Amino acid sequence: MSRQPESWLESGVNLLYKLRWGLLVVFLILTGFAYFPASKLDFEQSIESLYAKDDQHLLDYLESKRLFGGDEFVFVAYTVPGLLGEEGSRETDELKEVRKFSQELSQVPGVNTDVTQNLANALSPPKLNFLLRVLIRQKRDELIELSRGVLIGDDNETTAIVLRLLPEDQSPVPRAETFKQIRELAHAHEPRAYVVGEPVQVYDMFRYVEEDGDVLFKVSLSLLAVVLLLLFRRLRWVALPLLVVICSIWWTEATLVIGNLQLSMVSSMLNSLVTIIGIATVAHVAVHFQALQRENVPRPDAIRRTMVELLPAIFWTCATTAAGFLSLLTSEIAPVRSFGIMMALGTLMVLIASTVLLPGGMSLGYLRQPSKQSDDKGLARKLKQVAQMNERYPKRILWGSLIFVIFAAAGFSRLTIETDFSKNFRDSSEIVKALDFVETRLGGASTWEVNFPAPSQLNKEYLDRVRALAEDLQQVNPPDKTQLTKVISITDTLDFVPSKPFASDPIQSKLDQIEDLQADFESSLYNPEQGRMRIVLRALERQSAEEKLSLIHKVDALAKKHFPGSETKESDQDSKSVHDEPGKAAGIFILLAYLIDSLLRDQLYSFLLAATSIWLIMSLAFRSLKLGLISMVPNLFPIVVVIGVMGWTGLTLNIGTAMIASVSMGLTTDSSIHFISSFLRARSRGASTDEALRSTQHSVGRAIIYATSALVAGFSVLTLSHFIPLIYFGALVSVAMVGGVFGDLVLMPILLRLTYPDKAESAA
């Protein structure tokens, strides 16, 4: 490196050192003030936010909500022996209890009280005229069959109470409170009731991410403190990394609140990733500072020299990390873009916190001179053995690594996407137990639909088409396999209700009678003003990705077959072509099925952009395109291996692993920059390539091992999460970091030796 940048850098570091006490105090005070806005950071709990605004699945779902009021249903299911009583008997005590429990659930704030469904009311509606009461009594068995799979199971003992939620903007309490009260009533009921429904599943997903993220972050910080103490054996090197991490996180969160941004499912990993960057940064500073002290460099000089030699590397590591995350701005999904902004901001905060806090932190109090001999002789010996192995067998190592990468990359073709939403939770969780109960005893727990064009007034010919579609949908299941468990069409109830004698409009007469049976039945299936009708479907949630997507495609194809859409001419003089949109499948069931696909859709482009940006920044940092390219090898190696091994081992892509490539790309560059920077410094002082690599392996290698050990220990806490994607994320990031160690300490030295053979005069 030339003297001019060093002189400028030295003057800047000297100024930082002179102002270290004031800067330390001011930033600690600012951190205290940052806590208050940081604590108000909200968590966006909307499944819609995980889709691009123009995504067709999302548009179809939002259109359905607008047309039919949405399908935010909650099912409370339980078993009641003797539910129906003897054949032909009147309402049993058990059915009366069902009605009473239904009334209790209907009073929960946030529930639409007027449209709660239960078997007792279905078999004996409380407000009916005499003729309908007689009809229902005569057709009781037929009515039970209409209710089967929704209000009663095949065993005639399992029943469900169906609650329809008020829209969130109309609810008097937050959804969390509504679900809490429903579950309290269900758990207190005898026999115990189970609560399911897509709104509950989505709520539990976000709740686990938010609660586990907070708890696990605190536990992992505590574990990190213990590991750092064992590695460095100095309280100072426990306190300083944690201080940098906490300050960076609070400053980041406070800035997000001021900027009116929210955490989402995607950005729930913010704290964990900032921790990685902060711990890794301070670990390199600690190792470098202690090495200077072992050389009897006075503390003030050791502090200044450490900052002069490491600040450029710290700056470039933060720049490449930020560039990796900013590549996510190309995503069409708002939370993914905001995650990129958040992580770039968090990385900037780590840079500021490290620059401002470390000079004062290293100067505080008494600091015992480290022993001449390193406390980790075993680690030094292992690093020396690795260096010797690199020198003796470079070709074998490179060829072996290349073959392994090719083998791992072949696993890409075996990757699968997890669409069984229940697989996001542990088998012991409340939501999985409830899904098992409902789907084995009552039918599918997922509600969705097909909707299609409808006339402003129903007629026999149109209803025959609807009936034909419903019949085809009932036959859609493959042999010996149940996927679609219930088809609910307006024709089912119209066929059940008799026409009034001499009615001028028999169909409307039936609809009026249905209104007395169930107030929202017609409006939930038919919107004459907008010219749209739907058939509501129930499907198993716990089925594989292939089965679920195949079912969606079959149902959508049937809807388009029966209602392909058409073009008509308006009758006025300004006639124009009007297109009737064809039938289509829609619903939150489909959103959940395509959720990971939505997150993955633009990740390849983001990853390529991140890789290119990082290569250019590293080339600029080292003033060499060749070095920039070499530095990418150890960073791409663990990503290819991790994703490939996922394919070979059958690990599915889920919410936690959907962006593992882009995230890993932004995290594995730090050690590479420190390694190359140390190597170039040694070369500029006249060391040979072998000497420079050995000294770098000993110094930077120790920092890499220390940082990785601490972070892997911290991320192991994620395996305690209730949310399976968080477990995957913690495990895979740990594997990626270990792979990065291999890349930096094995592949990097070999590549540098090939680039800078000892016969070369200088590497400046």
Automatic annotation (TrEMBL):
Membrane transport protein MMPL domain location: 152-365
Subcellular location(s) of the protein: Cell membrane
Residue intervals passing through the bilayer: 21-38, 215-232, 239-263, 269-289, 310-329, 341-367, 397-417, 604-622, 629-649, 655-680, 700-720, 726-752
Membrane-protein topology: Multi-pass membrane protein
InterPro entries linked: MMPL_dom, Mycobact_MmpL
Pfam families: MMPL (PF03176)
GO cellular component terms, A-Z: plasma membrane
Keyword terms, alphabetized: Cell membrane, Membrane, Transmembrane, Transmembrane helix
Sequence similarity: Belongs to the resistance-nodulation-cell division (RND) (TC 2.A.6) family. MmpL subfamily.
Protein name, UniProt field: MMPL family protein
